[in-house]
Specification:
mainly alpha, Rhopdopsin 7-helix transmembrane proteins, 11 helices, globular, disordered N terminus
């Protein structure tokens, strides 16, 4: 008797970004360089914040968490993707695919939450700077950061169970470079409507709720900034938010176009292109955005390198 909760598939084949053999070595070298830059950039941000006492503030505490999430997020899929560029058989076992799916989704959701927490931090700092250290004490900061990580692990568990309860009877070829939900759903030989419903409900809590919170936070930030009388004060207030706002735009715009786009309007090739942006380029650009646009981070870097802080 065939059961909908069983699968005859023991492994999946990941087609990757390109099937052209002559490109595999070049893609391997390119993405190896990208991965090393992501690790170096985010670990450097974490090291600078750890070493420089001037950066021991709530804003940089949350930035440390963001960098840590980025390292974990990319490490869920980059090593396996790099191996597949050079391997003849681009397979991943069923259990490893489940683990990759779960961890990949966990850190992605955690990033959504930590970005919303960072928006709240900037709102508190600009709205009531005199009480900022009291409102954003270390107990509150620790709870918000822990909640972001925990929320990622909890919600992704629900999505993982809903997805891998489906049956995968014959087709085990994933037209993607990672075990991601839209690509997995295309393989099921059973009705996926329940899993899709779970995904859309979870999107309300993990995508729409954080982005709505961020929009409301920045609406209040704009109102608070416009009340500042001096032009210099307004520029300074906006400068503390510009880096975060740019990161939020890059991350949410791409991920929402993937998970909230109707299934009938999406395609495997489109999904792969969008995934490259939020899986590869957003973690790569985050350290650059926060370092190049942040005077305090640049000063900490000069101090770490033993250079004078000003020319």
């Amino acid at each position: 008797m065939e059961s909908n909760n069983l699968t005859s598939v023991t492994e999946f084949i990941l087609l990757g970004l390109s099937s052209r053999p002559e490109l595999q070595v070049y893609l391997f070298l390119f993405f190896l360089m990208i991965y090393l830059m992501i690790l170096l950039g985010n670990l450097l941000i974490m090291l600078l914040i750890l070493k420089d006492s001037r950066l021991h503030t709530p804003m940089y505490f949350f930035l440390t968490n963001l960098s840590g999430i980025e390292v974990c997020f990319t490490s869920c899929m980059f090593p396996q993707m790099l191996v597949h560029f050079l391997a003849q058989k681009k397979s991943i076992s069923y259990s490893c695919c489940v683990v990759q799916f779960y961890t990949f989704l966990s850190f992605g959701i955690a990033e959504c939450y930590i970005l919303s927490v960072m928006a709240y931090d900037r709102y508190v700092a600009i709205r009531d700077p005199l009480r900022y250290s009291i409102t954003m004490n270390w107990g509150i900061c620790g709870s918000l950061a822990a909640g972001s990580w925990l929320g990622g692990f909890m919600f992704s568990a629900v999505d993982t169970v809903a997805t891998f309860q489906l049956s995968f009877c014959h087709n085990n070829v994933i037209n993607h470079f990672v075990c991601e939900m839209p690509a997995i759903l295309h393989l099921s030989c059973t009705d996926t409507s329940q899993a899709e419903l779970v995904m859309h409900v979870l999107c309300i809590f993990t995508l729409l709720s954080p982005i709505t919170f961020i929009i409301l936070s920045y609406a209040h930030i704009i109102i608070a900034v416009l009340r500042i009388r001096s032009a210099q004060g307004r520029r300074k207030a906006f400068s503390t938010c510009s880096s975060h706002l740019l990161v939020v735009t890059l991350f949410f715009e791409t991920i929402m176009s993937l998970y909230l786009k109707p299934k009938s309007l999406s395609s495997p090739e489109y999904n792969k292109i969008v995934s490259v942006f939020y899986v590869v380029f957003t973690p790569l650009l985050n350290p650059l955005i926060y370092s190049l646009r942040n005077k305090e981070v640049k000063m900490a870097l000069r101090k770490l390198l033993g250079k004078p802080e000003s020319d």
